[in-house]
Amino acid sequence: MRITASAVSVNVADPQASARFLIDHLGFAEQMSADGFVSLERPDAGMNVIYLRTGLASFKPKSAAGSAGEGLLVVFTVDDIDTEYARLCDEGVPIVTPIETEEWGERYFQMRDPNGIIVQLVQWV
């Protein structure tokens, strides 16, 4: 087997709102979209992020659709967490967990997108 690409797909009420959050604040670009679907890319992210509208008929299996992002963290590792934290605070991004460092060396903070999805930036120190 050879894996040629990776993606995470997240159910949300408003795919365009979550997509706009990653585009505006984390530099993603829209790769493709349709009614109830947006696929985002960023060459250095290592995966695409796909947003699907909750209840979309094409989601299979229906039993796995679940609610919008419950218990999900979308996490990206960055080089300079303090600079990113200051920039995103200046941009007015809703920070739900201020920057902190865990004893095992994970320095991170968490923000909430318009659909309530938690996006976490991490730097290993």
From TrEMBL:
Coiled-coil spans in chain: none
Show the InterPro entries listed in the entry.
Glyas_Bleomycin-R_OHBP_Dase, Glyas_Fos-R_dOase_dom, VOC_core
Q: Which keywords belong to this entry?
A: Dioxygenase, Oxidoreductase
Q: What is the lineage of its organism?
A: Bacteria, Bacillati, Actinomycetota, Actinomycetes, Mycobacteriales
Q: Which residue ranges run through the membrane?
A: none
- Write down the PROSITE patterns for this protein, in alphabetical order: VOC (PS51819)
Species this protein is from: Nocardia tenerifensis
Residue limits of the VOC domain?
4-124
Gene Ontology MF annotations: dioxygenase activity
Query: Cross-referenced Pfam families, in alphabetical order?
Result: Glyoxalase (PF00903)
The entry's protein name is Glyoxalase/bleomycin resistance protein/dioxygenase superfamily protein
